[in-house]
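Morning F.,

Quick status update on the modeling queue. The single chain you submitted on Monday has been processed. Sequence for confirmation:
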Amino acid sequence: MSIIIFLLGSVVGSFLNSCIYRLPRGVSIVHPPSFCPSCKHRLHWYDLIPILSYILLRGKCRYCGVKISYSYLLVEILTAFLFLLSYYHFGLTLEFIFSCFFLSLLEFIAMVDLRTFEVMDFAVYIGIIIGVIFYFVKFDFEGFIFSIKGIIYGAGIMALIFYVSNGKMGEGDIGIAALIGAWLGDINTIVAIFLAFLIGGTIGAFLIILKLKKLGDKLPFGPFLAIGGGITFLKGNFLIELYWRFLG
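Structure tokens below.
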């Protein structure tokens, strides 16, 4: 079953690649059929086999020879592993399906933000709505309140940071934090945001040390929120328990 889940995840990852490229450009995900971004040649099914096609083609377009970004392979592999993690955590349950959706959505938002410094608002709104519906269906009114409180905490914290930083923190991050809150509730949303700053600060420091970035350079925060949200979604309770053990 793990192999099937991995393959399913890689297929979804291939679809995400298409969305990541097309949607920010206003191109339909249905038409035209898949094509090379460089030479615009239509791709055949054997050019689109997740992970395998990239490896066999050595990361180059079959028709023009232009190098294909490694991010295409990365997204397919990452999505496959996210599906596996969801399967190992939830089994073949309704929670597994929603987990795959949420983590894939975070991945999509993060990759678009990383490439364009923009947040796809429609993806955020869809994620919030489905998150609220999921918790309402699963836990009734208590689940609804859980989700709404998370939205308020997430959006509130990031809005405050946006205001204090005089807009240096992107306004789109408020929406991402609200999305995470819809799925994590109040306490775990705080954990996710803390992790985002911890991971973002660490990576930012390394980039400066390696002279890949300069102090003051723009760095999208959405990917770090997505990482913090994903980790907390799967292991939030463990992290909180670990924290209390550390304190005493």
